[in-house]
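Incident log, structure service

09:12 report received: a user says their structure output differs between two submissions of the same chain.
09:20 pulled the input from the user's history:
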Amino acid sequence: MKKIILLMMIFLAGCQNIDIEIDKELKVLDNSDSEELTFILELNTKNNSPEDVEEFTKYLSDFIVEREPSSVYGYYISEDSNKVTLIERYNNSQDGIQHGIDFINGPNFDKFFEIFEIEKFITLGYATDEFKQFTKENGFEIEYRESIGGYVRR
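09:34 re-ran on a clean worker, output below:
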C-alpha cells in the first residue's frame, strides 16, 4: 500500500510540473509584434544524386546546429529529388545577418552552390532595413513578406 501511495504522489507531482511547463508554452505573441524571421528557400539540386544531396544537407545541419543562432533549420526534398526546400528561423534580423556573414565567409559556401541553385528566397516576418541592405549588397534576391495575421507561441 505504501508503494501505491508513493507512486501516486510521484505521479501527481509530475502532473503539476507538466501543468507549469504547459502554461509556459501557452503564451502567444502576435506575429506583428515578433522580431522573428523565417527564410524559405526553394532550391534546385542541379541533377546531383539524392544521396549526395542528403549527405550534404545532413552535414550542413550538424555543422550549423553547433555554430548558428537559428531555432529551426530543415531541408525537405521533393519526390523526384530535383527540388529541396530549406526552412530557417531566426530570432531577429541581427541573427539573420550573422548567419549570412557566417555562410558567406564559411567553408560551405562554394559546396552549397555546387549542390544547389537558389530558385526562390522568401523572408517572412519583420526584416530590418539593415538586413535588407546586407542581403542586397551580398547578391541575394529576396522576396519579403510581412505579417498580416497569426501568432508565435512561446
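09:41 both user submissions now match this output. Likely a transient worker issue. Closing.
09:42 reviewer note: The chain is about 45% helix and 25% strand. The chain has one domain: 27-153.
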